[in-house]
Request: fold
Amino acid sequence: MMAGFDHKGSVKRAITFGAGIDSWDQFFGTRSSAYAACQANVIALIKRYCEGHRLHSPEQLNDEGKGILAFKGRCGLRAYFWQCTNTKGEQLCVIGLVVHKKTRKLDPAHREKTVAQRVLFENMEQMR
Reply:
C-alpha cells in the first residue's frame, strides 16, 4: 500500500495531503502498463518543478483559479495543488487531489474539493 507522495527538491517540497493522498494512491497504485508512462511523466514534472525548473504552461502546468494549479500529464492525469510555506519555512506544493480527466475543461467540483483541502491544511498548520 502506498502512502501518498513526498519529494524534497532543492527549491520546493511536494507532498500529498488528505484527499490527495487517497487519490494519489488510487491512481498510482494501478500497475497497468497503459498508465506507467503517464505516471512517470507526472512524477518527472513534479520533481522538475521542485528543483526550480519552469514548466510549460498550459501543456505541463495550469493555473486553475482560486490559487489552485495543476500538474498535467499527457494522458489526462491532473494533480491539483496549491503553494504555501510551512511552519519550518519550507516552500510547499501540496497536492490535494489527483484525477484522470476525460475532458479538457476543469470540473468545478475538482477545484472546490482542492480548495476545501487547502483550507483544512491551513487550519492544521495554524494549530501547530
